[in-house]
Amino acid sequence: MTAPGNVTGVHHTPVKAISPTTVPEIQSLIRRARQDKIPLYPISKGHNWGYGSDSPVTEGNILVDLSGMNRILNAEAISLANPIAVIEPGVTQGQLHAFLAEHYPDLTFNVTGAGCETSLIGCALDRGVGYFGPRREDLFGLEIVTGTGEILKTGFRRLGEDSPLAHLHPEGLGPSLDGLFFQGNFGIVTSACMRLRPRRPREVAVSLSLHHSENLGELVNQLAQLKRDGLLTSVTHVGNRARNHSTLTYGIAHYLENSCAFSPAQSLVESERVLNLVAPSEWTSLAAVTGNRGQVSSALREIRRRVGSLARVLVITDRLLDLGFAVSHALRFIPSARAVAAAIHAMRPLHRLALGTPTDIPIQNLLWKVGHPSLDVDQLDYSSCGVLFVSPALPLNGAFVTEVIAGMERIAKDYGHCLYVTLNIETATSLVAVINLLFDRDDNAKVEIAHRCADALLAFLQERGLSPYRARVDMMEKIVSPHDPHWQTVRKLKDVFDPDNIIAPGRYNLP
Length: 511
Ligand SMILES: Cc1cc2nc3c(=O)[nH]c(=O)nc-3n(C[C@H](O)[C@H](O)[C@H](O)COP(=O)(O)OP(=O)(O)OC[C@H]3O[C@@H](n4cnc5c(N)ncnc54)[C@H](O)[C@@H]3O)c2cc1C
Prior knowledge:
Layout: E1 16-18, H1 23-36, E2 40-43, E3 62-65, E4 84-87, H2 93-103, E5 107-108, H3 121-125, E6 139-146, E7 151-153, E8 187-195, E9 197-198, E10 202-210, H4 216-228, E11 236-240, H5 241-259, H6 264-278, E12 283-291, H7 293-307, E13 311-316, H8 318-330, H9 335-353, H10 361-369, E14 385-389, E15 391-395, H11 398-414, E16 420-425, E17 430-440, H12 444-463, E18 468-470, H13 476-479, H14 485-497
Parallel strand pairs: 1-3, 2-3
Antiparallel strand pairs: 4-8, 5-9, 6-7, 6-8, 10-12, 10-13, 11-12, 11-16, 14-17, 15-17, 15-18, 16-17
Helix pairs in contact: 4-11, 5-6, 5-9, 5-10, 6-9, 8-9, 11-12
Residues 42-50, 66, 89, 112-114, 118-119, 121-123, 125-126, 128-129, 188-189, 362-363, 366, 387, 504, 507 line the site of flavin-adenine dinucleotide.
């Protein structure tokens, strides 16, 4: 079962890869594919780690790698009054962040924890989740080459790029077509309008560490109410201990080795001690609170009032971290000060995610864990790291969430796995739980067990009338059903946009 080049352990090797750089090239690829009856599988950067990376859903595809189409098409026209970037699929988080820092420092965007080399469009098209909201809400005004080779522009982009409305008004007129191209296979998206975020006068990260794990449901309910009341406007990420420790260990060990002369073996032991000291909670959340000074102060006061008895509330600013680090680093010969310095070193880039700065740390952490710390982050698929996501949407109801997570944990335990869980409070009524298994991809038996465990987790969710909000490539057959009118309609739409079924066959669709 083990396959090179894919953290999921399943890979359908394409017959070849082509890297077009223009829309007419893509149109001619589609004409050719229709003639030759060879399907095309588009990727933006192909770093869909844990969901399939750059593997097509079926065998025999040509991989259409759009990473070379990486222009910001309206670079000169972006402004605070019009905070929209028109981007091509190859534009990455790191690229957009560097561009904005240089040219528009008052603007930022909805970053994810998936590293600097991942795309904005590919992630959004698979309905990824950023720190400020669901990525699908970032995009509108798509330009698509459909499976017939026609160019379709959604919203008011159809009026032409020179129209004053082209890059401003998301909905356009008439039925909205954008949604058809998210988690779909009707065309190749060649550019899109992406919302940027004006920076607010005051932006802080807030971390809550739950005192008692049995109060998780109550914490979720309180966070839900804070969301509904408009006090927590970003996505609140609530991570379990396995997830938080796993993400922090690399940074802590890195500090201990480089700043305290610990050997790798010593740093591992000491990291465990540091983690138990600075991050003892079973559940810890991270969110951003932004606004003018008055708004932020009153939101923080209210957050403290509502959850202060449930969790330790920590308000984190760069200034606080800088100060804390300077003092504790200077005193690092004292074990408790060293622990604080190591923890701040590890936490700093992760907290900045909540304020719009992407980081490679979560990926470097995985590489470090599997003993490949010097591998480039975009080579994760070539390490022995195995990752499978099983990510359900859940109602924003604390008791329900607690019960589902406990059930999933029981199943994982039966297979000898622990779950790495983040509950992303995305909307006022629902959350998405991003849950993964980690395993050694060099060990066939472990790959096999991880897949059986992931199948059992999916079955558990489906038996309860639940569903993943985002599916792995190797999961598609289990989530689409020929008997379901929804999928039947999606298949009929496929005939409209792509009558020869040459774009990404089987992706969120019947074969
Ligand atoms: C440690 C870790 C942390 C992660 N954190 C996050 C996170 O915080 N949030 C999150 O959402 N994900 C996260 N991920 C999952 C994943 O790595 C990211 O979502 C990543 O951004 C997806 O890869 P990509 O941007 O290169 O998209 P791609 O792999 O290029 O695209 C994803 C899929 O979309 C389709 N697609 C892409 N481009 C096009 C196009 N132009 N036209 C038509 N279809 C297209 C293809 O089917 C493709 O397979 C994480 C993964 C790991 C391992």
